[in-house]
Amino acid sequence: MERWLTSGGCTVYPITKGRSNTYLVFDGDDSILVDTSHRGALKGLTDKLDDLLDGRKLSWLVLTHSHYDHAENTAVLKERYNTRVIVHKSDYMT
């Protein structure tokens, strides 16, 4: 699988591409998912996440903004991985 290594020591995996981009970032013991993509990408996204996480906890889920193609799977992934969500206060919905 494609991956990038940052100068700061993080490993970044592009998970989905095309209509919506999602990335899994490993920084030491922390793992951060950036965006959750759209509903149609959920199965492929969770398959890749499960493989890459390999039993580790997903530390954070970060949303760049709340458009459906970036955030539609947030509730499902938050529950599945029992993780915390970071989003700008102007995009927060209860």
Write the layout of secondary structure elements.
Blueprint: E1 4-5, E2 11-16, E3 22-27, E4 30-34, H1 42-53, E5 60-62, H2 68-71, H3 74-81, E6 84-86
Parallel strand pairs: 4-5, 5-6
Antiparallel strand pairs: 1-2, 2-3, 3-4
What keyword list fits this structure?
single chain; 94 residues; alpha/beta; Metallo-beta-lactamase, Chain A; 6-stranded mixed beta sheet; 3 helices; 6 strands; globular
The residue fraction in helices comes out at 25-40%
Number of domain modules: 1
Order of helices and strands: EEEEHEHHE
Helix/strand/pairing category: alpha/beta
CATH homologous superfamily classification: Ribonuclease Z/Hydroxyacylglutathione hydrolase-like
Low-pLDDT runs of 5+ residues are: none
Silhouette? globular
Rounded to the nearest angstrom, the distance between the terminal CA atoms is 35 Å
Count, helices: 3
Number of strands: 6
Q: Looking across the biggest beta sheet, what order are the strands in?
A: 1-2-3-4-5-6
Instruction: Kindly identify the CATH topology.
Output: Metallo-beta-lactamase, Chain A
Overall average pLDDT: 92
User: Which CATH C-level class is it?
Assistant: Alpha Beta
Q: What CATH architecture label applies?
A: 4-Layer Sandwich
- Taking all Cα atoms into account, the compactness measure Rg is 12 Å
Proportion in β-strands: 25-35%
